[in-house]
Amino acid sequence: MGVAVQVDGLVRKFGDFIAVNEVSFEVREGEIFGFLGPNGSGKSTTIRCLCGLLLPSAGTVAVHGLDVRRHAEEIRAQIGYMPQFFSLYSDLSARQNIEFYAAMYGVPRAGLQQRMGEVCERLELGPIMERPAGNLSTGWRQRLALATSILHRPPLVFLDEPTSGVDPITRRMFWEVIDDLAQDGTTVFVTTHVMDEAEHCTRLAMMHYGRLIAQGSPDEMRSRHAKNMVEVRTGKLWDTLAVLQASDAVVEAVVFGDAIHAECHAALTNPAQTVREVLRSARISVESVAAIQPTMEDVFVSLARRYGHPEHVAAGGDG
């Protein structure tokens, strides 16, 4: 499996502000690479550098072996890019937008109608094809933007928070399309701050304050960064949370739906039993206390706590 994207020591500055700071990673051909992190962590700036829309302030970026400084136009011709914010032509209809981007990407006219039909059927765009893009809801706009980014069958697609603001049905559709693209051999680079979407990815990298703080497969991220997780179910949710957050045995405790997820210190051999004893001593009654496999949200909370301030963020992340 070859390398689709190679990033080494990427720095991007805006004046004195460092938006991306010494970031290094690679994306392999045919994988779904998830780029995670909260808003403002540097994800979108990084992706714009990879697409050749911004030049690096320092470091190197290569896409399919082409350096973005010297070959930005060539790179843009062979990728698909769906930006975070809607950027299609509001006064054109959905059909006209698709036809415009097909011409821009050089889709042969002979097969254009067939390809448009395939993409529009997959994204169920039929009802809005003649409507102005500016009048569409967020969900329809996102579907249309995705259609224009994959119409020309690029080998590499960059999707910047594609499911932002969409309903659960559209969100599921998007990830089905992303899975289909990967099955067909397309490399998909997708940014998100929704942690459950990370489960769909082959490998992940997490940004925080402009630095890369962790990377690996979802299983690797869970095993490294959220160990000794315990789930507590109780009728006294907030009292229980306060007790756990004050306990020396607990690294972090957060409300997770109608339960509490507590990350215990790695040295504990039986964290669930320790949590039971802590709550018993505080006279807190519980429905259940059980060791669990951490979710990606647990991983995010653990990493955000560990790297809570810019000065605490170490360059490079995990290998």
Task: Tell me, briefly, the overall form.
Answer: globular
By DSSP, the count of extended strands is 14
Helix-strand pattern, N to C?
Answer: EEEHEEHEHHHEHEEEHEHEEHEH
Intertermini distance? 18 Å
Taking Cα atoms only, what radius of gyration do you get, to the nearest Å?
22 Å
Which labels suit this protein?
34% helix; 14 strands; alpha/beta; 319 residues; disordered C terminus; four-stranded antiparallel β-sheet; six-stranded mixed β-sheet
Fold and architecture overview:
The protein contains ten helices and 14 strands. The chain is α/β, with parallel strands linked by helices and 319 residues long. The longest helix has 16 residues, at 168-183. It is globular. It starts with a strand and ends in a 13-residue tail after the last helix. Residues 312-319 have low confidence and may be disordered.
Outline the fold blueprint.
Elements: E1 3-14, E2 17-28, E3 32-36, H1 43-50, E4 58-63, E5 66-67, H2 68-77, E6 79-82, H3 94-104, H4 112-122, H5 138-150, E7 156-160, H6 168-183, E8 187-192, E9 203-208, E10 211-216, H7 218-225, E11 229-233, H8 237-246, E12 250-256, E13 259-264, H9 271-281, E14 288-292, H10 296-306
Parallel strand pairs: 3-8, 3-9, 6-7, 7-8
Antiparallel strand pairs: 1-2, 1-4, 4-5, 9-10, 11-13, 11-14, 12-13
